[in-house]
Amino acid sequence: MDKPITIHDIARLANVSSATVSRVLSNSSYPVSAALRDKILRIAKEANYIPNQLGKQLKTRTNRTIGIIVPTITNQFYSSIILGVEELARKHEYQVLLCNSFQDPALERKYIQAIFEKQVRGLVISSISGEKELLRPYIERGLHVVAVDQRLEGERLGQVDFEYRQGGRLATRYLIGRGHRRIAYVTAPLDRPSRRSIHAGYMEAMGEAGLSPQVVEDGPGTSYSGSYEFENGKALTARLLESEPSGETPTAIFACNDMTAFGVIHALTERGIRVPDEMSVVGFDGIDFGQMITPPLTTVYQPTHEMGRLACSMLIEQLEGRGRPDQLLVLQPELLERSSVADVRE
Amino acid sequence: MDKPITIHDIARLANVSSATVSRVLSNSSYPVSAALRDKILRIAKEANYIPNQLGKQLKTRTNRTIGIIVPTITNQFYSSIILGVEELARKHEYQVLLCNSFQDPALERKYIQAIFEKQVRGLVISSISGEKELLRPYIERGLHVVAVDQRLEGERLGQVDFEYRQGGRLATRYLIGRGHRRIAYVTAPLDRPSRRSIHAGYMEAMGEAGLSPQVVEDGPGTSYSGSYEFENGKALTARLLESEPSGETPTAIFACNDMTAFGVIHALTERGIRVPDEMSVVGFDGIDFGQMITPPLTTVYQPTHEMGRLACSMLIEQLEGRGRPDQLLVLQPELLERSSVADVRE
DNA sequence: CTGTTAGCGCATTCAC
DNA sequence: GTGAATGCGCTAACAG
User: Fold this and answer.
1) Taking CB atoms and an 8 Å cutoff, what residues of chain A touch B95?
2) Burial, B329: exposed, middle or buried (Cβ in 10 Å; 0-12, 13-18, 19+)?
3) Residues A152, A132 contacting (CB under 8 angstroms)
4) Is residue A95 within 8 Å of residue A89, measured between CB atoms?
5) Which one of B52, B62, B79 makes the best mutation probe of the A interface by having the most chain A beta carbons within 10 Å?
6) Which end of chain B has less neighbouring CB within 10 Å, N or C?
7) Beta partners for A95?
8) With contacts defined as CB-CB under 8 Å, which chain A residues touch B111?
9) Residue B255, SS3?
10) For strand C, is any atom closer than 7 Å to the CB of B39?
């Protein structure tokens, strides 16, 4: 573990100046005679030269890494977004600094600060705290931000959003089309825009069909853990089933996301209620696991991987001076029809 | 987006030298009078000073970030490890540079190089290519490595390993204990140590019980995609069911990991074969999703989150000069009994 | 085409 | 206690 060799070392070895070495080794367009170039390249190779990017970065004020902040990587919804981001980052020779915020605004704040101090100037974020105030000072100092999944009100940032409301409508209308009249909506706390939008879409579709909505919502303040969504789906289903007079039991349950839908199906199966024969279930997300359970989950598909790719692409455009800093991309929902919904039996 | 302010700026503002500012702002133990300290702190705050870690890192040759390379973050097995790593990293004020290798040795190589160039000196890796040769030159130059999940033969690196063989035995013996005699083992290519070990454990347990093993292995060279494991589980099950005379059909299937087991269950269900009544299934991993499917998957539990934590802890010990660079930690398997296994009906 | 010089922002000798 | 000077490794003017 001897002292790492620098361009000066190889400059000495080659009897040239370190400037020339730099020009060659950094692929500068600056002209250097072929002879010297070859010689330097050869010597660098022999000496096993490895450039120190810190020096380069400090000098050039560029930094080929982008930060990414999501609630938790364990949720496939987010890991899929991250994969998309990383895929595009790789293509452009960037690397990814990953942060899990656990929906904790304090942590979020700390990470943003740390990222910025490391001179990272690109950030993809799925923020829950939704405080654009948090980001603003950094943006003013040159941080480029693309918000994904969660809409962030703010002028100077890119957004890859999703038509959640339309998704809520789509799923609900689909169920109505299959003959369902009593459709429950089961949801985690309506404390963020995306959830409120899905809920609104559900309400709208129910309203236009003259049906009365039935919403079961978890109370706020539940601490965030890896399997919260799943447990919540189970709990809410229990509540739904027990609170209603049996004549009023819904024939279909629409869940705010796939993980919750898994919990719903689990609770149903546990009680001997067959899906979809006795109860239809629709989720929201379209994560891969939906196809692995029995029955495969019918759901509203969100192109997470694509969202990650787009967000990263947008970000890199900004970082490299192309593209406007306030681009808004809104992706449209699609219904992913699998096998968890049946026509209602009259 | 004006020029960022540096310690020199605030030195000027406070009428002191930048050295003094540095001492105060970097929490140096070096003595500075209380009066100056307060003044500098105040001015720095007013000016919204944000330190540039690049400068600091270049000078101090420290770098509070650790790299992590895994095949793919989309597999909950790995995302859970990462979460563990990140959790401990956060506790020690480190950040995490994430890389997905997609089991591609070339990519792996590229990432290691990039990480090293960024002066990152700590790496947690779940390498598939298993070439310790790849790592050696970097280790010699000061990279600290902890291998997780996949054993890497090499002297100068930490390892958090798992008793795969014992896990294979455990699952197989469990099935035998429940009365099964024809137990098939369904696996992705036996091209890495962990898989070979599980397989060996299976063979051993079958042998000692005087039973004949029945192994279905996928051919090598399949390209890696997110749902490979699942698809493979389906395909291998189909092969298993079709190749055997019906009298020889196994009563239980042991899969090399949970995702594969999901595929197995899926294929079974598709064919109207009920789990566990007509066929028992055991997985390997213990990922969260196992409890969300129907029936909940009985499996060999691997404490992935804990593995991530331990790996990171080990790494940080090394980075900070404590702890030996060749520590080996071997975690023991446990059987996670859920509902996908039934006693065999004679 | 090549070399000299001067920093990027910071921490750290060494004088005082 | 404090400041002046130096350099981490690299690139980018500016001369030649």
Assistant:
1) 97, 99, 111, 114-115, 118
2) middle
3) yes
4) yes
5) B79
6) C
7) A65
8) 95
9) strand
10) no
pLDDT for B346 beyond 90 = no
Residues 273-332 of B with CB under 8 A from A: 288-289, 291-294
Contacts for B233 with CB less than 8 Å, ≥ 6 apart: B186, B255, B259, B260, B261, B262, B263, B264, B265, B266, B267
pLDDT tens digit string along B183-225?
999 999 998 889 999 999 999 999 999 999 999 999 887 666 6
pLDDT tens per residue, range A212-264: 999 999 988 766 667 889 999 999 999 999 986 767 899 999 999 999 999 99
Count CB neighbours of B178 within 10 A.
17
Those of residues 200-229 in B touching chain A at CB distance below 8 A are 226-227
Token pair listed for A297: 């989950």
DSSP class per residue in B188-217: S-S-SHHHHHHHHHHHHHHHHTTPPPEEEE
Q: What is the crossing angle of helices B53-60 and A53-60, to 10°?
A: 140
Residue type at position B224: Y
Q: How far away is chain B from the Cα of A207, in angstroms, using its nearest Cα?
A: 33
Q: Which nucleotide is nearest to A10 (CA to C1')?
A: D9
Tokens (6 digits) for A339: 């096998």
CB of B282 closer than 8 Å to CB of B55: no
**How much is the average pLDDT of A106-125?**
97
Nucleotide nearest to A62 (CA to C1'): C8
- Token pair, residue A255, equals 């869940």
**Residues whose CB is less than 8 angstroms from the CB of residue A271 and which lie 6 or more positions away in sequence, other chains included:** A241
pLDDT tens-digit readout, A126-163:
986 766 688 999 999 999 999 998 888 777 899 999 99
DSSP B65: E
* Contact assignment for A74 to B76 by CB distance below 8 Å: yes
Asked whether the beta carbons of residue A95 and residue B114 sit closer than 8 angstroms, the reply is yes
B82/A contact by beta carbon, under 8 A = yes
**Encoding tokens for residue A34?**
């072929």
Do residues B67 and B124 make contact, with C-beta atoms less than 8 angstroms apart? yes
B65 CB near a chain A CB, below 8 Å? yes
The model scores a pTM over 0.90: yes
